[in-house]
Amino acid sequence: MKKQKILFGLASLTLLTSCGPKLLTETDKINALKDAIVLKKNEVKNYMFSGSGKQVEIDKATKEEITRVDEMFIRVNEKGEKQAHTTYQSGTNVCDYYLVNDETYDKLIYCDSYSRYDGKITVIDRKTHKNEFDEVLADDLEPITSVVDTLLDPYKILSVVGLFHNDGQTFDTVTKYYSDKDGQLTVKINETSTVRGDNTTNEIEINYEDYVFKGMSMKHAYSTEEIEMKFEYSFDFEKMDSLTIVIPPNWEGHLYTGE
User: Fold this and answer.
1) In Å, what is the CA distance from 230 to each residue of 43, 60, 218?
2) 193 strand-pairing partners
3) Distance between CA atoms of residues 100 and 106, nearest Å
4) CA–CA dist 226, 59 (Å, integer)
5) φ, ψ (nearest 5 deg) of residue 155
6) What is the pLDDT of residue 91?
7) Mean pLDDT in the chain?
8) Average pLDDT over residues 206-211
C-alpha cells in the first residue's frame, strides 16, 4: 500500500517561470541560499497551506479508469490556532478541525470527522479532557502542520519525498537546484526505483520565493500486474501578516463529556 493519505492525491502545478531559473552547481552557493531561507522561516507566523489534485487507477485488463479528486487546506496563526479541512475519496469522506484558544477551557478542538466520534461533531476541551485533546491533536492536526514545517526548511525536504517510500524500496535519486534571483530557489528531485520488478517513479518540484516556501508539485506512479496507478499533487503556500480563526457557532452544544 502506498503512503498517500497525508498528501491526498493532488494535481500537478508548473512552478518555474517562463524563462526558467539557472542551474546551480556550486555547493557553497546552494547552501548559502538554503541558510537564508532557514533564517526567514522563523518570520512565518501566519499562513495558509492548500492543495488539490487527483489519483487515477487504470485496470490493465479492462482499461477502465477510476479517478478520485481531493483537496485540503490548513490555516495557522501566531497564537497557535489552526483550521484544517481535508477530503478523501472525491469528497465522500470529509474532515474539518478547528483548534482555538479559550478563556474558560484553555484550548478547544472542534472535530467534524467521518473517522471520529461516529462522525458526530465533537468539541474537546483541554482543561478537563487533556488526554482526548492531545490524542486528536497528535493524530489528526500535527501530521499536517509537521509537513508544512518541513517544507519551509530546504534542508529537510527529502523527508517529505520519503512519505512515498515503502519498506524495502530504494531509489536512484537525482536532485538539482535552480535560481534566477535573490531569494528564489527551485529544487527538482527525480527518483526511479532500483528494486527489480518495481517501476515506481517520483517527480518533485519545490519552489521558494523571497526566501519563503511558495509551492510544491509532485507526480508519483507505479503499477502491478493488474493496475496502473498515477498520483498528481499540487500545494500552494501563502504567508500572511495576520489571520483570525473562529470556531463555528453553537459549539457549546457539542462539548465532549466522556460518555
Assistant:
1) 36, 13, 11
2) 171
3) 9
4) 6
5) -75, -15
6) 63
7) 89
8) 96
